Amino acid sequence: MARYELVKRSVALITLTNPPVNASSSAVRHAIAKSMKCALSDPEVTAVVICGENGSFCGGADIREFAGPLKGPPLVPLLDAIEAGEKPVVAAIEGVALGGGFELALVCHYRIAHSKARLGFPEVTLGILPAAGGTQRLLRLIGIPAAAISLKLGIVDQVTEQNACEVAVEFALRAVAKPLLSRRVSMLTTRCPPDLDALLDAVTMQVKKKAPGVMAPLACIQAVRAAATMPYYKGIKREGELMATLFNSGQAWALQYCFFAQRTAGKWTLIRSAAVIGLGTMGRGIAVCLARVGISVIAVESEKKLLETGRQMVIGMLERDAKRRGVSASLNLFKFTLSLHDLKDVDLVIEVVFEDMALKKRVFQELSKVCRPATLLCTNTSGLDVDALAGVTDRPHLVVGMHFFSPAHVMKLLEVVCGPRSSSETIATAMSLGKRMGKVSVAVGNCPGFVRNRMLKPYIDQATFLLEEGATPEQIDKALEDFGFAMGVFRMSDLAGLDVGWRVRKESGLNGSDVDPESPPRRRQGRRYCLIPDMVCEQGRFGQKTGGGWYMYDKRGGTNAKPDPLIQNLLETYRSKYGIQPRNISNQEIVERCLFALANEGFGILEDGMAARPEDIDVIYLFGYGFPRHRGGPMFYASMVGLERVLKRLEHYHQAHPDVPHLKPSPLLKTLVACGIPPVQKWREHIKTMHSHL
Ligand SMILES: CC(C)(COP(=O)(O)OP(=O)(O)OC[C@H]1O[C@@H](n2cnc3c(N)ncnc32)[C@H](O)[C@@H]1OP(=O)(O)O)[C@@H](O)C(=O)NCCC(=O)NCCSC(=O)C[C@@H](O)CCCCCCCCCCCCC(=O)O
Ligand SMILES: NC(=O)c1ccc[n+]([C@@H]2O[C@H](COP(=O)([O-])OP(=O)(O)OC[C@H]3O[C@@H](n4cnc5c(N)ncnc54)[C@H](O)[C@@H]3O)[C@@H](O)[C@H]2O)c1
């Protein structure tokens, strides 16, 4: 876990060897302690260099070890001992020095970093703080205003383009005769601005606004205050207390769970050329995603004028995107055409035409004729049967859904929809292409709405039922935003556009001329149905783009949502028309009904084998709907609330609303409760039917 050798006759070289990122696991800490002991007691050794194997200094504490009882030498005394040692220690930093890795570097008396090295404290993203003296030492090294502006100022003693370890060894030899006292960062006094309190208060306000309810950033500010106002030994104690609170919090568990869930969900591993058919809202963004990673793109439209519009839009997006990333726009990768015959040699096609099965089938039949036999045929349908499309081609095994989310060049989530006949290689190729484009790709089964949209329905339904019963859009949104969503369901719907759902409801016979005239009021297809969303759309209110939806906006495309008296009137008229007595609805009921219905559908999806594991569902909601990361995703959240409680509350709500099937607890939820409530990671073991590819 760490290699110890003597180089240049007098420098002890300690190399951390814990792939892939040399995380400071208990074994690594053990090995560092042992090596340091050897180096400090060996009279031949005059200086020490610490580096990491395979291009990484150290990725920090081994996060996996946080899930069990803490073992091995604690980091704080180990690091204090390195700093207090009487021989100069130099950190040779290549790759990452993150979290505990950066803390290790900070106790070294000198730091040599490769120009491409990344140093930092990402702990807040894991719900904790740098708790091995990091908050106390970094502030002492660079001062508080610097810490607020940049973490890079004054941190390293030399930046090199060469092998950092070799440079560090030479540096260590020169450092031997120099005094060490001023190199011990914990002995320095933190440089503070005169208006420290005002600065920290302002940062606290900003953090509370930006990340409401999230604990770790606030704890970091308290640690900064300690570094500014306390001696090191007290400051480190305070850092430890703050860590203990965070470490045992549900937020830390949720965020660490998210870290690994994101990587687990992405575990899938050649595409040089691709085609995109349809340059509308989605097609443009998808074309940009492909070109951004160097894939040449043939873009197809149905008419000359539309092709030209699409071309201009794509070029504009590419140029803005390239400017933002400081690279040149890859316009030479594009060819624009009206003819599918130009696609004969491409490796992969993504169909992005209107959501119309007959049209999509015609496109797939044509592709089958023109594309070479090995070309993968993908569809961006948001809900149609991928297997029905595969069925009209000569290569059903090479057909797969690649479901991007709007705006496609921004949203991280990609659902890879596996049809029953999609081959493993096809799925793997789509997954790895997603990863290459920087997406978080999740393989899902082929069911209506797939995973994200299927789960969204009961969530939105609950919100609209709550409107009928007495709540307002702003009350519901506030409850969900207090829970941690950046936007409540109605603000989010106004942003996405209300017309899409309206069209889907019409096509499903839920409103419009296809509705069964015998349907009782507020019931469709045998279940409760809220007419309010259709009434809003009938007034031409489609959300932000029309200047009004659930809220009013100052202009078309405006983003500043204000409560609209017109919606208030509509709700009152509706309730009195249908004899509904409005009642006071608590925030708890809002959150429970929306989120438990969401999770309940997730259990149903797992049970149907349409998602491989709860982690996949959580990742879909983290990256495809802005579920608050510190809550871990809907399935993890349900596990934190306690499955027994979720079950009881769903039973309670279903009893009160028997005409809402989505509130009826899913059999899988009941099974998990009956078999002793296993942790999320073990739920998969209780699922009987699993999609063959998941
Ligand atoms: C490093 C990265 C930037 C690399 O990114 P890249 O894209 O190249 O690769 P991946 O992200 O896919 O990662 C590859 C692979 O490596 C795994 N991995 C990465 N980092 C770690 C890690 N730190 N630990 C374990 N595993 C790691 C990753 O999972 C992948 O593996 P896979 O499973 O997919 O095969 C990038 O990975 C990255 O950003 N990593 C995280 C970096 C980070 O956040 N570091 C900080 C860690 S936390 C820390 O260091 C805390 C310190 O301050 C020390 C604290 C000491 C105190 C500890 C205990 C105090 C207890 C409190 C008191 C309790 C009291 C009580 O209970 O009573
Ligand atoms: N808009 C979204 O938020 C969203 C999100 C995910 C998935 N989707 C899915 O993506 C697909 C496209 O949606 P959109 O919102 O981009 O629609 P859109 O109406 O904005 O664009 C569709 C484009 O396809 C073009 N087209 C139609 N027939 C064609 C043909 N035969 N050859 C070439 N081009 C043709 C049209 O001219 C139009 O430019 C749909 O299946 C939709 O369900 C949409």
UniProtKB/TrEMBL annotation:
Location within or outside the cell: Peroxisome
Residues annotated as domain 3-hydroxyacyl-CoA dehydrogenase NAD binding: 274-446
Broad class of where this protein is predominantly found: other
GO biological process: fatty acid beta-oxidation
Protein EC: 1.1.1.35, 4.2.1.17, 5.3.3.8
Gene Ontology molecular-function annotations: (3S)-3-hydroxyacyl-CoA dehydrogenase (NAD+) activity; delta(3)-delta(2)-enoyl-CoA isomerase activity; enoyl-CoA hydratase activity; NAD+ binding
Residues covered by the 3-hydroxyacyl-CoA dehydrogenase C-terminal domain: 449-553, 590-675
SUPFAM superfamilies: 6-phosphogluconate dehydrogenase C-terminal domain-like (SSF48179), ClpP/crotonase (SSF52096), NAD(P)-binding Rossmann-fold domains (SSF51735)
Pathway: Lipid metabolism; fatty acid beta-oxidation
Record carries keyword NAD: yes
Lipid metabolism among keywords: yes
Family according to the record: In the C-terminal section; belongs to the 3-hydroxyacyl-CoA dehydrogenase family. In the N-terminal section; belongs to the enoyl-CoA hydratase/isomerase family.
The protein, known as: Peroxisomal bifunctional enzyme
Protein species of origin: Sinocyclocheilus grahami
Lineage: Eukaryota, Metazoa, Chordata, Craniata, Vertebrata
